[in-house]
Amino acid sequence: MRLKSTFLAGTAFLAFGAPVAAFAQAPEEAANAARATANTASIEGVIVTARRRAEDVQAVPVAVSVVTAETVNNTGAFNISRLTQLQPTLQFYSQNPRNTSVNIRGIGAPLGLTNDGIEQGVGVYIDQVYYNRVAAATLDFVDIEQIEVLRGPQGTLYGKNTTAGAINITTRPPSFDFEATGEVSLGNYSFKQAKASVSGPLTDDIALRISLSNTDRRGTIYNVATNQWIQGQDNLGIRGALLWKASEDLNFTLSGDYNLQDPICCAQIYVRVGATQRPLNRQYAALTAAFGYTPVSTNPFDRVTDVDAPLNARNEHGGASLRGEWDVGGGTVTSVTAWRFWDWGPKNDRDFTGLPITTASNNPTKQDQYTQELRYAYDTERYDVVVGAFGFYQKLHTTGLEAQGPAASRWTLNPGNVAAGSAGCATATTLACIPAVLNGLTANNDILLKNTSLAAFTKVNWRLNDRLTISPGVRVNYDKKTGHYDSVITGTASDGTRQRVLFTGPYSTDPWIVAQRGVRAPQYYEPDFSKWNLSYDLNLSYQVTPDVLAYGTYAKTFKTGGINLNGVPLDANGVPILSAGSIKPEKVDHFELGLKSQFWERRATFNVTGFWTEIQDYQANVNNAQLGLLRGYLANADKVRVRGVEADLNIRPSQRFSAYASGAYTDHEYVKFVDAPCPPELSGGGAGAAISAPGTPGGNSPANCDISGQWLPGISKLAASWGAEANRPLNLLGKAGEVYLGYDASYRSKFSSNASRSVDLDVEGYALHNFRLGFRADDGFNVYAWVRNAFDEEYFEQLATTPGSTGLVAGQPGDPRTWGLTIRNQF
Q1: What residues contact 131, with CB distance under 8 A and at least 6 apart?
Q2: Which residue range or ranges hold the TonB-dependent receptor-like beta-barrel domain (predicted)?
Q3: Are 100 and 134 in contact (CB under 8 A)?
Q4: Residue range 38-57, pLDDT digits in tens
Q5: pTM for this model (two decimals)
Q6: Which end of the chain, C or N, has fewer beta carbons within 10 A?
């Protein structure tokens, strides 16, 4: 705490003005440059590295959006979650850092399913280092230079797991000119954020940059059970980089970072109760009545809860990298060597109530990741080429714990015809009425993953003439995964002794052990997967005019296969069905047509893209009665399709006004998915041949559901973002500058929050509006007031079913209205 207070005070010192004479020259030069260009109104070119070389974004025949450091600072988009409000086709879903999905155009990873043995479909890169686990990329952005969101498969240059796209983040490099930045923000909910960066030369050929960021905010939901505010923010980030210019042609950058997130988080709270096919006395209303329990609130926007298990979301991660760049032979050799670690220490409440049903549900995880990439980029007048190789190794170890409490028996087990009220259990001998049957039932899970990937790739841009360029690319990839899953279950036998829950042995027929086995079954297996794959793409681009570029792309790519490390179905003897241990790769066919244009003397930019993506063997949560399934697990759906149109418009008619608008229409469906999990209203019933109507208490439920033609989860058909900023010259407090008013907004339409669409799990559409008003001085000083979600929109980030088909729906309310003041100074 003392370290954070010292950092906040030091940053405030920088933000309000530090007497560092060596930094005085840069602002004066910047001010002179600003005055010299005061009458220009064209949109400045943005340089990106989307194709692993520096190019103007309008010359790159790829659907890519760029978020600059200025936009990140002005809009408060200080992490990937906030970035979604600026990027309509970027989706971010997080129950906690580990259970997080980042999707582009709605694809990337199954929504709401955590499994160590699978990988994302969106590649996250920070300073050219690949982050395999999204949980290790939920950090606050520290000293960002720009963010590129590449939409559509990027498998040739960015690797196997970019079937949906890639997020390419670049931080500010060390500078040989002294510079410093300090920023402090204060707001409601006790929001405090401080950022600081300093850079300069150590010698004539060595420069250093050190950057720090700290965010702290009280939670937005009050937990009456523990007298704590939850869903808070408590983030610390430190990054350092050392640049050595060994010669005119050779330089090395050594980088390191450490990040810690340690909030009291994360809980999903009561939203509503829907009907299921569980017997009526086993649905939520009857069960809560039996316990005499009433939730503290049935309005989620009261923002109170009573979850009784301890909560924590400690997420510690960091690493180091060495990047070398050598200009040789008319091209550039780039080597990126990196090591990353991830240490996840959660505490969760997985029954979503104030009852002691599941008293612990924790899956602490430790990961080490090593990567090596080597590329050579060569340019000539007629063609340029990138050729390279990539190696990846990951070791991940999860030690899971799940424990049941005294309310678990009544909540989980079938009491037959016992009356719903507590009196009905007073004299009953059914196991559901005996708290000791499941009280203390404990699952200790030991999960190990070893993951190796090797690849070789090349991409060529061949300019047939001044207008037409053909760009083929190919990547060969080898993946190997080996795993270990050992779930040891311990419970209490009917004689009161603690016993292993097993399918064989002297206690295997004990009625208490049999009941416990139906709730959590032990299993041990060692799955493995290995496969070669080939990705390739072909891009044609045509420069219609100097300011208009047309392009088309076909890509054949894949997301690597995986292994099930959350448990697999068991046969009648309790033996794991090993055929379900591995998952086939996703195979992607992608078509895209795009047009990039600038007009109005380059005061306006308009880009439009149409896309069509089909995925075979889509990795999803599946039920399959042919395997004698007792639970859901990860497998392959036959085929899904996502198609749509995106458009981006930016205008800058003068230096005093700029505006932007981005929109996307996305049509999406499971083309064929016949063994999907059923929605809650078709779950929890008996196994009779005649399937009952949805929501029939005590009815018959199908073993699985055919959801072909239904929506994919997490995708809105319509999504948009828009905004504007106007400014006017002003002298304030002896400083020359401008006063400005900014507005940013985003909208998304209804989307499904469940693997199989449910009447109770659609998230209604919503719009968010943000404003800022401030003064920006020519010398780098900036102060502004801001308000986010200005109209206090009540919306959900995500909804979820809860265990046991009781009908309870829980969710995560989005942030309420927040407001504050930011002061930034650059030297």
Answers
A1: 124, 125, 137, 340
A2: 284-789
A3: yes
A4: 445 566 667 777 677 778 88
A5: 0.90
A6: N
